[in-house]
Design brief:
alpha/beta, signal, Peptidase_C13, cysteine-type endopeptidase activity, Legumain, Rossmann fold, three-stranded antiparallel beta sheet
């Protein structure tokens, strides 16, 4: 009986995750299958573009998953048609070539998965992954960023913005590698 309850709870959870994923994809105009998601983004060109800010708010080998998840999100967005120029990536970038990495120069976000580090364009690394740059990038303020390549979101009122922030946090708190922000 206990095993059945666990199975049902897990099934319900996975169904809920899939529903949230589909809803998010639909809102962003990311379509895997027109039958499943409704109108495709190519039929809705007047809706603007998709811009993305991907952030791994931690560093250190023990936080491997945060940078691997950001790298995976980068490839997922590109596979769904988001332009590389519209994706801004912030990650400390100390994991792929970490001395503890048994696969130098590679990151994986699932067992036996593909290298998600290959091909990722990291716009802000090291100390440039900070709250000030995060806010300046979101606001499209090129003069407000320091370090990195200066890339910001150049969105307009028709565009959609996707922010993926992978890290530890708590109510009213956002963590970055060398600082935390209370909100």
């Amino acid at each position: 009986m206990k095993l059945l309850f666990i199975f049902l709870a897990l099934s319900l959870y996975l169904l809920q995750v899939e529903c949230y994923r589909r809803r998010a994809y639909t809102r962003l105009g990311l379509v895997e299958d027109d039958d499943d998601y409704g109108e495709s983004s190519s039929e809705n060109d007047d809706a603007g573009e998709i811009w993305a800010l991907l952030v791994a708010g931690s560093n250190g080998w023990y936080n491997y998953r945060h940078q691997a998840d950001v790298a995976h999100a980068y490839h997922t967005l590109k596979q769904h048609g988001v332009k590389e120029d519209n994706i801004v990536t912030m990650m400390y970038d100390d994991i792929a070539n970490n001395q503890q990495n048994p696969y130098p120069g590679q990151l994986f976000n699932s067992p036996n998965g593909k290298d998600v580090y290959k091909g990722v364009k990291v716009d802000y690394k090291g100390e440039a992954v900070n709250p000030q740059n995060f806010l300046a990038i979101l606001q499209g303020d090129e003069s407000g960023v320091s370090g990195g390549n200066g890339k910001v979101l150049k969105s307009n009122e028709k565009d959609k913005i996707f922010v993926f922030f992978s890290d530890h946090g708590a109510t009213g708190l956002i963590a970055f590698p060398s600082s935390m922000v209370n909100i």
